[in-house]
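Suppose a colleague, Dr. K., hands you the sequence of a protein chain of 68 amino acids and asks what its three-dimensional shape might be. Before reaching for any lab equipment, you can write down a predicted structure in token form. Begin with the sequence itself:
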Amino acid sequence: MDQEQEQKLRDELVSLQQKHRALDEEIAELEAVGAHNQLLIKRFKKEKLAIKDRIHAIEDQLTPDIIA
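The predicted structure, expressed as tokens, is then:
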């Protein structure tokens, strides 16, 4: 992987981490006010999980394999 590809992955990683935090805050706010829109909360949680999976995939790409 060249430096340009690595930088793109790192930029995407930062962006995804920010989106993950924002969704976490949004979910917490909706739950705190007792929002009755459980469908919206469920959708946010599903999106948050998908983002988390993508974050882990990027982190795996950025972490070099270590041969023991």
